[in-house]
Amino acid sequence: MKYLTPLLFLFLLSACHEVNEQTAIRRIINETDYRLEIIIYGDERAESFQYEIMPQDSLNIEGSCFFGASEYCSLDWTTRLAFGEIIFQDSLR
């Protein structure tokens, strides 16, 4: 029993991971010949986001990645966004 307590303490200490946050960039690439309009709609509590990507161009969106016991990345959008759509414009301008 006297060895169990230090082993349990070491196990708990090694199981705890500090969460680290890093700035991340997600790139959306438009490889089509159409102008893209990306719209992310929020609900009544969150704003909407709208992006435009010209043909053969890309868009960088900043966000954050969190590393620790689990890893996930979040763009600058809140979790209250309802849905989104991508519109392919016929016009190149």
Describe the model.
The protein has 93 residues and is mainly beta. The protein has a 3-stranded antiparallel beta sheet, with no helix packed on it. The chain has a 3-stranded antiparallel beta sheet with strand order 3-2-6, with no helix packed on it. It has one helix at residues 4-15; strands at 20-30, 35-42, 49-53, 57-67, 72-75, 81-89.
Quickly list its features.
mainly beta, 13% helix, three-stranded antiparallel beta sheet, 93 residues, single chain, 52% strand
**If helices are DSSP runs of H or I spanning 4 or more residues, what is the number of helices?**
1
The portion of residues assigned to helices is: 10-25%
The number of distinct β-strands equals 6
* Helix and strand sequence: HEEEEEE
Domain unit count: 1
Mean pLDDT: 76
Indicate the structural class: mainly beta
Q: Distance between the terminal alpha carbons, to the nearest Å?
A: 75 Å
Main β-sheet, in a few words?
3 strands, antiparallel
The low-pLDDT segments are: none
State the shape. Answer: elongated
What does the radius of gyration come to? 22 Å
